[in-house]
Write a structure and sequence with these properties.
By secondary structure, the protein is α+β, with helices and mostly antiparallel strands. It has 24 helices and 23 strands. Helix 3 runs antiparallel to helix 10 and helix 10 runs parallel beside helix 20. The radius of gyration is 35 Å and the shape is elongated. Strands 14, 15, 16, 17, 18, 19, 20 and 21 form an eight-stranded mixed β-sheet that branches. It has a six-stranded mixed β-barrel with strand order 3-4-9-6-8-7. It is 51% helix and 16% strand. Among the domains are: 217 residues, no CATH class; 175 residues; 191 residues, no CATH class. The longest helix has 44 residues.
Amino acid sequence: MTSAIHEHVLKWCGQRGTIKSWRRFHKAEEGTMINLWRDIRYGMRVLIRRPGFTLIVIATLALGIGADTAIFSVIYGVLLRPLPYRNGHELVVLHQQAPLANINDLQFSVKEIEDYRQQNQTLSEVVEHHSMSFILYGGDEPEDIQTGVVSANFFEVLGVKPLLGRTFLPGDEGRGAEGVMVLSYKYWQRSHGGDPNIINKIFTMNDRPHKVIGVLPPIPQYPNEEDVYMPTSSCPLRSSDAFIANRNRRLMDVFCRVKPGIQREQVQADLTTIASRLEQTYPDSYPATRGYRTTLSSLQQELTRRAQPTFLVLLAAATLVLLIACFNVANLMLARLMQREREFALRSAMGASRWRLVQQLLTESSLLAVAGGVAGILLAANGLNLLAGFAARFTTRAAEIKIDSAVLIFTLAVSLFTGLIFGLLPALSMKASLSTTMKEGGTSSSGIMRNRLRRLLVVAQVAVSFTLLIGAGLMLRSFIKLQQVDPGFNPERVMVVRMNPNWIKYKVDQYRDFYRRLVEKMKNQPGVEDVAIASSYPLRSTDGPSYSDLSIEGRPQDKSEPTLRADLRYASPDFFTTIRMPLLKGRVFSDADRQGALPVALINQAMARHYWSNADPIGKRISLPQLDGQWREIVGVVGDVRQYGLEQDQTDAAYVTLDQGGFRRWSYLLVRTTAEPTTMIKQMRAAVHEIDPETVVDRETTLEQAQREALTSPRLTMLLITLFALTALVITAAGIAGVMALSVSQRKQELGIRLALGATPRSVLWMVLRQGMVAALLGLAIGSVAALALTRMLRTLLFAIEPTDPFTFIAVSCVLATTAFIACIVPARRVTSIDPMTALRCE
């Protein structure tokens, strides 16, 4: 093939009488490659002869390129890598919203899913799914497993092929079908040791046998990390006739595959039409006061929505570190060029063109950049596990983070581009005049230009460093404010475990009896101070509000107003005492508040302030339709707690006693101890299993751990940005010190003459110091303007602080100015040791 092309080209050239031109071109091309190879070999020898300079440059570049590579690995794995599903770009997620009621992500009911499946014109498949926790029997002991309840087309639409066995078929979802389940790869490895004979094994779940029919490959799961999957007909709640018939029982999420050739705008118009039709047909289910609508987003966007703001900010920070590293290395290259001016002037005199000399410098800078890139990859690889663990807090795609060919290509491109940046500036300032270079102590316009260029690079380093330090300062201040938030309770010495009874066999009265006996048993344990049972506990960031519509007696609601809502929470009488949650008015629950007694409720301060302002809500009555619709008398007002995270706003909350109907399939046992709370775990497990051996006890934690966990993500984000900022500060300080040291060395004769003519060492020191500080202060001024514009990117990551916080700007200015002063004064003090007579003799 190649020879044929050559013959064709030679024939074409021959027809035009240009064979000699072609040969000259080919020979020149060969000469260029030879020259490049010579430049590479010579460049390597030069760099090896100066190991100190070479190692400093490589280390500086490794920090910048390594930071960029590590963050890009996360960005690519989480945000950019195509979904590991068939035609992932066609997958979209539906969102039902009620903006007038401040509901941004409402789930779907079975009836609504059927309507969208039957009435749409733009979707080829509609898939439902939701997550539940069930107890699995058949292993060594009962196991609480996270179960994805999905429609039979779930895996087919995603295009996921099983590692073992098969996935669901339409017949698996029919009424009366055999119970089947598919295991996730992680669960299969963790609980069954990767047993290849797991297929067709029978386990019991919800008092029904379930056969394992397949095992999934190790891929990211949407929307949650599930242990097993079951078809909708296997879920007792989802398959019940009452649940299916109730249009308002919204529990499921929905994703779809768009028909080929259909645009997103067409799908949105289709969804809007269906939503409008449903609102007209079922006005009671879609009151106009809520403004129901249905929107869509891509599945890839949904998987990465929480991760995107944080990691884009981290990428920007890493890129700024790399930019500072480039500026610093460019200054080092300028200084190195001064030492080699005679070499290049001689080569120029012997016939080397300016381009050949520039090519030599660019070759050396590329060698340094590639070496820095290799070292950067090693640094990034060492920190990747930490970053992947951090990313797992935001997205299930964290498992896809790795250094692969795409990341390596990115690193190579960044390395070469970096080499071009820090190599081109010194190369273009190179002197080609032999006469000016050969004169000892001579000066030239190009030398003046290089001095200006070095100072400009210092200004740029300080400006970029200031921007990074402002970001780190804002994140630090935000984190400190988050730490100072009053959670609304006392977390000390409170142990928490989750209990999940086999709810199929329990009736409501049996639940009450189980919890009552458990509380009494735990109260008699040594070392126990208080005991409570609740539907949740504060700082449960993985939970979300359990909203119920709200009616207030004597306050008819205008149909044009948004529906009232409250976050419904269940608790035993001692819950508020156990977590030391303050009672502000009235009383808390008592043992007398049982089934058959006057229905009562407690509300939090946020709800009291919202609906009663300065009036007293005690004695007023509310109704919660999602619970039982009974009128309940408000008997107390308790303080606000940070239920879903320290940074989350308070929600209006209503508390209902467990004995008056507030039951869930699982609850939390909270015990305040007199000693180390973790020593109580065995006693808590034993007490539960003594009453019911089949109840699963798991997710042990303390409220202090929950509080620390609430700070983990903000802390890691703050530490990463601070690490980048400190790295930038060190590189900048080194750059300033290097420029000052070179300036003093270059001006040694001039400064000696000034001293000989009567200038005091102090005045000469101040003159040199002033030049360095002027560049630093100019960088601060430019950095201030840049920071005011760029720190707005941090707004979504900040808590109780503005991106333009004046204290942060003043503090960072002082820190950076002090650092610049120290970096200037250390080399500048060498001025005072100059001997004027020695300087005069040299001149």
